[in-house]
Design a protein that fits this description.
single chain, mainly alpha, Arc Repressor Mutant, subunit A, Four Helix Bundle (Hemerythrin (Met), subunit A), 2 domains, four-stranded mixed beta sheet, 65% helix, elongated
C-alpha cells in the first residue's frame, strides 16, 4: 500500500472560518478531479490539515463527504484512499456525457439569446488564463462553472445535477503533463470557440465543437505514463 508523500499537493491555506467543511470538501474534490490526489495513495487527515492550515476535524469530515460520493474510501487507522477508475469507467463517463451534453448544448444554442450567453465569456477566459498559468484547480473549477452554466439554460436541474455528479467522479489525470507541455491552452480555448458558435447559432458547428471537445476531455482523463 502506498503512503502519501509529506507535502507538495499545493493545497490552498484555509483562512476563512465560514463553513470550513464545505470549503475543504470543495478544494479536495477539485484537487482530486485535477489528479493531484492520486489513486492508491492513503492520505491522512492531519497531513492534509497541515497543508490547509486547519485542524484535522473539518478535513476528516470533508473526506467522509467524499466517501459518500464514492470518490474515496476509509482505510482504518490510516486515513483515506482515493478510489481508482478503470478505462471502462472513463469511456462510460464520456458516453453518458455525450448523450446528455451534445443535444443539450445544441438546444441551448438554438434557444438562448446572445445576451444570456455572453456572461459566460469571462468564465471561458478564466479557463484559458488558468491553463496558461498552470493553475489546475482554477482550471477545473472554471471549466465546471462554464459547462454547468450552459446546461442550466435547459431549465432542467436534474440534467445539470447528473452532469455535475459525473464531473465529480471523473479524474483529469493528464492535466499536469498537458500543462507542462503547453497543450492545455488549446483545449481551454475550445470553450471560447464553442461560445462564439453558440452566439452565432451555428448549430452544426456547435454540435461538432462540443463533440470534439468531449473527445478531448476523454484524452485528458487518460492515465499518465509511469
Amino acid at each position: 500500500m502506498s503512503i502519501e508523500p509529506p507535502s507538495g499537493l499545493n493545497l490552498p491555506s484555509m483562512n476563512e472560518r465560514r463553513s470550513l467543511r464545505e470549503l475543504i470538501t470543495h478544494e479536495l474534490r477539485a484537487a482530486l478531479v485535477a489528479g493531484r490526489l492520486r489513486p492508491g495513495i492513503v492520505y491522512s487527515a492531519p497531513t492534509l490539515a497541515s497543508e490547509f492550515g486547519v485542524s484535522a476535524t473539518p478535513v476528516r469530515e470533508a473526506m467522509l463527504d467524499l466517501t459518500k460520493e464514492g470518490l474515496v474510501e476509509v482505510v482504518r487507522n490510516k486515513g483515506f484512499r482515493i478510489v481508482g477508475l478503470t478505462d471502462q469507467d472513463l469511456d462510460d463517463f464520456t458516453e453518458i456525457r455525450g448523450l446528455i451534453e451534445i443535444p443539450a448544448t445544441v438546444r441551448v444554442a438554438a434557444e438562448a439569446t446572445a445576451e444570456q450567453l455572453e456572461p459566460l465569456r469571462p468564465v471561458a477566459a478564466e479557463i484559458v488564463a488558468a491553463a496558461r498559468s498552470g493553475d489546475l484547480i482554477a482550471y477545473v473549477e472554471a471549466d465546471r462553472r462554464f459547462h454547468l452554466g450552459l446546461l442550466a439554460f435547459t431549465g432542467n436541474r436534474h440534467l445539470v445535477e447528473t452532469v455535475g455528479d459525473l464531473r465529480k467522479r471523473s479524474r483529469l489525470y493528464g492535466l499536469n503533463q498537458l500543462a507542462e507541455a503547453g497543450r492545455l491552452v488549446a483545449s481551454a480555448e475550445e470553450h471560447e470557440q464553442l461560445l462564439d458558435l453558440m452566439i452565432a447559432r451555428d448549430l452544426p458547428g456547435v454540435e461538432q465543437a462540443i463533440t470534439r471537445h468531449l473527445g478531448h476531455v476523454r484524452s485528458l482523463w487518460a492515465k499518465p505514463q509511469d
